[in-house]
Amino acid sequence: MPKFYVIHNPQAGNQAHGDIISQTKQLNTISRWTDTAYPGHAAHLAKNLAKTITDPEAVVLAIGGDGTLNEVLNGLIQGQKQRPLPLAYIPTGSGNDFARAAHLGQASEALAHLKATTHTQLLNVGQMTDDGLYQSTRYFINNLGIGFDAAVVERANQSPWKKRLNRWGLGHLSYLATTLGAFFRQNDFQMTLMNGDTYRQIPSAFLVTITNQPFFGGGIALLPEADLSHEGFDLIVTDKLSFFQFLKLFIALKKDGQHLASPHITRIPLQRGAQIHVRDMQPGQIDGETLCKSTFSLTIDFHTYPFWL
Known about the structure:
The protein is α+β, with helices and mostly antiparallel strands. The chain has 9 helices and 15 strands. Strands 5, 6, 7, 8, 9, 12, 13, 14 and 15 form a 9-stranded antiparallel beta sheet that branches. Strands 2-1-3-4 form a 4-stranded parallel beta sheet, sandwiched between helices. Helix 2 packs parallel to helix 3 (66-78) and helix 6 crosses helix 8 (173-185). Pfam families: DAGK_cat, YegS_C.
């Protein structure tokens, strides 16, 4: 049985999972429990764990939303441990897209699943190296977005409705509630892509998302056939649409993937080292966490990481 080192975000989901937290604390396999105190704290804690833990039975358990999971993943990788510490997860956030894609269910189901898990599995993790404003390397497990989806995330994270909906276990609806407002405020932009030997210029991009899992924005099935364990990432680009075209496409988006047949959507499998350039100031998001509005000059790669799922 593994020894769990817990990194818990007590603010995730507006503190609506007190019963699950109490049950988790009762596990006799908890070796250490730390609550985060500020944004970025989870990454700092995970990095320290990666550098100091030598126990071969250790598993880091992240409890929070997709943003918490992203921070912990980044901290563990940045710790540069020769034997990576496996990462487990209980979702207590608003969108919980990773839990949905990994078939973990709600927090109570994920806890039951955690108790029954006996081994790790390797999942695909994206790497974003930004040579532009950020001058940094970050990792993501859900998706990386520029443009419309990032605008939706930004508005949802700032919306007072998010906290109210979280209290009722409906936090994912905050993304749907802000979609229309984001549509009218988001402009199209130029993007260039160097993918292997192929150069492509997209003059009127509206949504640019890199993903290897089905969901974003609290359960919207952008790429239904995607698989977290599949090596590689896809780039999904949507053109700027009229409002009626957008509504038609959005309705299809909520169904079975038929939206991918639209001439307004382009799907491109990315090769290692693919380069994406956006020169206009645009909103960005990584695993549901807002990036400052910026230009982007990105190099994309991918790796595997052990998850205790």
